[in-house]
Specification:
Two copies of one chain form a homodimer. Chain A is about 5% helix and about 45% strand. Chain A contains two helices and 34 strands. In chain A, helix 1 packs across helix 2. The longest helix of chain A is centred in the first third of the chain and has 18 residues. The radius of gyration of chain A is 21 Å and the shape is globular. Chains A and B meet through loops of A and loops of B.
Chain lengths: ~425, ~425
């Protein structure tokens, strides 16, 4: 049973009840009660009470175009929000008050979802094809990276009204490029990469958001396909699809330009079969070390970020997709591309040894740590569930049904850079 | 005009109105309106609407025994909560949902304050004299460090019911010690120091919170007076009042025991006049470097935390009290003891140069960065105000009246270690 909410979102109350394991009759009664409450208050079921928003989150249900809202304290789903369009490769950022999630859909849809009420407060179709977005340091500006037409659009985070846009037309080739790897930087600046043109651009919205000041770095390498900013906001790193190596920009010193590093990092001359290009946004950084997924290889690569030199590798069970550091930086959790996508391995940073291997189920797509790292939430797509594990004992603490879950995003991301 | 709230807290509505700069008549009308609302809903004025809690905070008004709730998005005070007892040297931790603040008073009072309603949900007098506290990694346990009687008490974060306690009786001297430097560690563990006995104890509540497992490190140095845990939860560092040097415990390897470091750090043999022992909880860490206040000296000391060796000093305007890193780690903000307590200096981490000096007013007591570092809030005690500055331009963006403000605490601390 799906019912529209006042603001245009939809809430699947029956699914919500089912997740709470309630009996059939009580469920029917509850649905009726909630229906009545919705009519009375014009708000979905989970909108009634004051509550904190620091322990909320959501999971993407890619096939359905829906999300489920999550409570990391009670370890439950709070309800489902539907009508978000194509959520394949969806990404999410959060408002600075940790109340609203901005969901970027593949179809160019940008939706502002209220984590308290489950309502879609606002939704715009802002392009034909989008790959993700970012939120300014002060929380006032939402930026969306678009494939079609290639460029970046900036929106008021309150109203989702368009503030300005930057078409990604290279001055070298004259063509529009797809924009990838859009990341926020200090001072309401954003950095992004142009896939076809092989450029990295910086947009400065600190003075006049309606007229972004753009700095262009050209010839940075072939086909940048994704990028990351380190947690301190200093290093912008783009991975290259068209050749080996990475492109690195020091955002503390953009005047020094983009430099190339890790010349042997990539698919190599023999073009190893790569089942999935690794995600970059969550490269693990612990002290001065970065731990990055080997491309097409069964290894995690260690890089010293003070020199951007490779200093070692750690052999793992498959081709890594995400290499994620616990918030304490003490251990890394790694998942893998097909055919090893049933496996998660945990690496001790200090000894660089694998301390645990587990098989949560078919198609582990994503992992998210609770803000202080006591638990990890793992989406297991083909088993239609999220698993919650204790990071110290690895014990499974619970699971939540979800429809082919992919990305999990917690609201504490509101307070951190480059996520 | 002060009125009691339903749960025992009090809310100064007039002061709240005054801070909003409203006219006299409107103010009277507003107070009446709010009174009516309070009678109707049995909740203080600011309890009406759903809102996110990621951008909330509070400032301690030490002389009055009150706090003001703060909104970092609108840059306003939301209201005053009174009846919190002796708030000299008060400290605060936040619930994992970022809704509740736990305020530790010097008089042994522990108050749970609802940031949404301003109500004191629960208040216990848990000792005769307390110096601060911590919250477990999973948010379930509040720990209070007590001078009288010396020891640590653990409370359920939901109910504030006592779970267990550890009297700080040294097995070497047989006497109770004052407990200082209580910090949480991963896995629902806590670490703290015994002032008179010169010991560091670890309490493990991960298995059975009613029976904490205690590990004692003896002979760690004379009179530890404060301590910190680095942001990654790894290093516990105690400052020594009775001799020079610091005591360092690697919480990843407690079996290696406490070691001494920085033998020349402290008051020295000539016993320099020390106007105020520097606070430790906020030692700035950027990469592998820690920046710590020189004791009795006009300098910031640089320490390599991979070796715990001093590697340099930066001359500053006075005896530093707080040396705090912006969330990006790029710059340090330093305030000073009397007679330089009107000054704040900003240091660029990379060049180690002072890039800005400002004089916000008499008695700068504390500074707090917004979670992603775009602004800093500064409490200027003798001017009875908080000043809000842009961290990039240093420009003053606003000020908020406050009665002799001291510590400022934002709810995003809920998600970080060792604060």
């Amino acid at each position: 049973m799906t019912m529209p909410s006042a603001q245009g979102g939809t809430t699947n109350l029956l699914a919500f009840s089912r997740e709470r394991g309630e009996g059939k009759h009580f469920r029917a009664f509850r649905v009726l009660l909630t229906l009545a409450a919705c009519v009375a208050l014009i708000l979905p079921a989970f909108a009634q009470d004051l509550r904190g928003t620091g322990d909320l989150g959501l999971v993407i249900e890619r096939a359905k175009g829906s999300i489920q809202l999550l409570d990391t304290t009670k370890k439950v789903a709070l309800g489902r929000v539907q009508g978000l369009g194509d959520l394949s490769h969806a990404s999410v950022v959060f408002s600075r008050d940790a109340r609203y999630a901005y969901v970027f859909g593949r179809d160019g849809g940008l939706s502002k979802v209220d984590l308290l009420t489950g309502a879609i407060v606002k939704r715009v179709i802002q392009s034909g094809n989008s790959i993700g977005g970012a939120i300014s340091q002060d929380g006032g500006i939402i930026a969306a990276a678009n494939y079609t037409p290639g460029g970046v659009k900036f929106f008021d985070s309150e109203t989702l009204e368009l503030i300005s846009e930057i078409p990604a037309r290279s001055e070298v080739t004259g063509q529009l490029s797809k924009v990838v790897g859009l990341e926020e930087a200090a001072g309401n600046r954003f950095t992004f990469s142009l896939f076809e043109a092989g450029e990295i651009w910086q947009a400065d919205l600190s003075q006049d958001p309606k007229n972004p000041k753009v700095t262009r770095h050209t010839g940075i390498g072939k086909e940048p396909y994704d990028a990351l900013v380190t947690g301190d906001g200093r290093w912008y790193v783009a991975g290259l699809f068209g050749e080996d190596g990475i492109a690195v920009l020091d955002l503390w010193h953009p005047e020094r330009g983009v430099r190339r590093a890790l010349p042997a990092y990539g698919r190599g001359e023999q073009k190893l079969p790569v089942y999935k290009m690794p995600h970059l946004e969550t490269w693990a950084v612990s002290g001065n070390l970065a731990f990055i997924p080997g491309v097409g290889r069964h290894e995690v690569v260690l890089v010293d970020i003070s020199t951007w030199q490779k200093i070692g590798t750690i052999p793992v069970a498959g081709q890594p997709v995400f290499v994620m550091a616990e918030p304490t930086g003490r251990r890394l959790w790694v998942n893998f591309a097909f055919p090893h996508y049933d496996t998660v391995q945990v690496i001790d940073v200090e000894s660089r040894e694998i301390v645990h291997t587990m098989k949560p189920g078919k198609a582990v797509l994503h992992m998210e740590f609770t803000p202080r790292g006591e638990h990890v939430w793992i989406s297991v797509r083909d088993e239609n569930r999220i698993q919650i594990h204790d990071t110290a004992s690895f014990a499974k603490l619970g699971e939540i049904p979800a429809d082919a879950p992919s990305g999990i995003f917690f609201s504490s991301r509101a307070h951190r850079f480059g996520l």
